[in-house]
Amino acid sequence: MFKKLTSSLLLLLFLTGCEQFQAASNTVVLDLDVIAKATGQAETIKQQVEKANSELTAQLQNISTQLNEQLAEEKKKLGKKPTAEDNRNIQQLTIQANQKMQQAKTLASQKSQQYRAALILQLRKNIQPVAEKIARERGADIVSISSNSMIWFNPEIDITDEVIAAVRAQPLSSDENNKATESTKNTVSQDNDK
Question: Looking at the domain assignment, is residue 169 inside a domain?
Answer without folding.
Answer: yes
